[in-house]
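Input/output pair, single chain:
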Amino acid sequence: MREFGYHRASDVAGAVALLGADPEARFLGGGTNLVDLMKTGVERPARLVDVRDLPLDGIESTADGGLRIGATVTNSDLAAHPDVRRRYPALAHAVLAGASGQLRNMATVGGNLLQRTRCGYFTDVTKPCNKRLPGSGCPAVEGEHHNHAVLGASEHCVAVHPSDMGVALTAFDAVVSYETTDGPGELPLADFYLPVGDTPHRETALPPGALITGVTLPPAPVAARSRYRKVRERASYAFAIGSIAAALDVRDGEVREARLAFGAVASRPWRARTAERVLTGAPTDAETFAAAADAELAAARPLPHNGYKVTLMRNLVVAVLTELAEDNARLSEETGR
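Output:
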């Protein structure tokens, strides 16, 4: 590990100024991803700017009925917050599925969004990797790729984004707030992650030196009827091989509104807008759910050893949407609406 300096920031402006003055510095939140990458030599910061003590650890309702989540809120506090559990249950489910209790106690919302891929070629500095060393190649295309991307990838990179939280936030149109030396800014999460294209080393649209200060969830009544389902290779804390955040609003057996986002299938959380369009106005039956999944997955371009993900995601979409439709029907019976 490279020797590095350490500074504990006391205010947002000071933290941003420190990073602006030193392009080799990195912000440190919980450190659950960054420190691991420093140990392997993937990340080699000259200085760490600790932001854990900044006043960004609150969760509060917005004036329009949404939710504002500070960047240093821990995953544990996010998953346990009553407003998150009641109004955006899929987000709470995703966080609880994402890591062990010890990691959730340390990991932060801002850091979760910025975590790097777990591709073995990326984390092994003895191997080429376009994400780590642009122009060196992507050995996963011809090598080990059973858990790599089937959507939105390119010949330059087929790695997937590991965040569970990010999938749920994507489904509900979250907006990321940040601060730079030029002032504050915002990015819809839909625009936050860049398409992989031929520049996989450029992962987000954040300006250089930007500090994430929070995430805002706009009001979404449909989110109260949502869930997150994660499939993994062992029944313990592991990264997904496929996941889904989904919500349905059903009236009289017809889908009024649908929200869908996929995880572990692309370089970023994948908003399934094609599937949402197929679902809207359609009946809540297995045929409709399968058609929605097929429409979204028509763009999939699997590699020789990860084609199973297409079938897995199709089955996952049908199963989760069926459960949500049954929940909606049961609620209608109980309320008489």
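The chain has a mean pLDDT of 96. The two ends are 61 Å apart (CA to CA).
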